[in-house]
């Protein structure tokens, strides 16, 4: 994996001179399958920021998050032969990222602070709909706080929806949950966030 990063600068220059930067993922995947492993740098470059953002929202220690991201891309590279080109590559990659992160966090005995479920019995009309009224910066800061209190699988699901703009359908494919189950989880997290906002307002 390390040599993919070592060749990154050289490969960027190569892409600029050949125009390959405009090619889609399938082009590079086929090159990798044909033995041109350096082409994997393109895949890493395109997706590492998004993958790191997802992982880092759950794993606050940067070094640990980077380790998990590297493990994800190693698995992506090793599994490329199994990728069927008729499916969406980003969704396929995110599924590996989701499963690898969950697995790594379980191995490392990742701890989270469970959220009290005392908000669940509050009628919806009593929970202030202030989420849409606060700034994006405040919203993301609050989301970060809540994410640390969720189980990893729920936290990753929420990150993909609110931070990486994945659709309910894609999240369903990535996580293996039904679309109905994803909607329930998203609804629950919205209630949690609104409840946390109310606690801040009242404090």
From TrEMBL:
InterPro entries: RNA_pol_sigma-70-like, RNA_pol_sigma-70_dom, RNA_pol_sigma70_r2, RNA_pol_sigma70_r4_t2, RNA_pol_sigma_r2, RNA_pol_sigma_r3/r4-like, WH-like_DNA-bd_sf. Residues 141-191 form the RNA polymerase sigma factor 70 region 4 type domain. GO terms for molecular function: DNA binding; sigma factor activity. Pfam families: Sigma70_r2 (PF04542), Sigma70_r4_2 (PF08281). Residues 43-109 form the RNA polymerase sigma-70 region domain. Belongs to the sigma-70 factor family. ECF subfamily. This is RNA polymerase sigma-70 region 2 domain-containing protein. It comes from Dysgonomonas mossii DSM 22836.
